[in-house]
What does this fold into?
Amino acid sequence: MDVELLLGWADGPGGGSIDSLVPELASLLGVEYEEVQSGSRTFLAFHKDFKMWVSYRPEGEEPSLSHPFTLELGIRRGEEGEVGNRIYQRLVDTGRFRVVLLQDAACVKSTHFPCADW
It folds into this structure.
């Protein structure tokens, strides 16, 4: 199962750049990160339960307008749902982010964007 989180700042698009987001995510999720070569600025983070690629992908319509950051997760088979939900909840509990949880490109749950509109 593919697991992604779309992420934006709770206070709107002007909340901060990828340069401020990545260190905050690293601290919150307990990961080490590094910038990797890609077509756009991308960071790779490592945790014992997952790998995470963080990139800035603004597009011209919702939910990308209010959730311009993408967190792609690499999770061991069979643990995707549990780990994805745990990361989603940890981000939500801070009150700092707008979060959409996607599994196999389908919206599972969201803080600010109705999954029915996905």
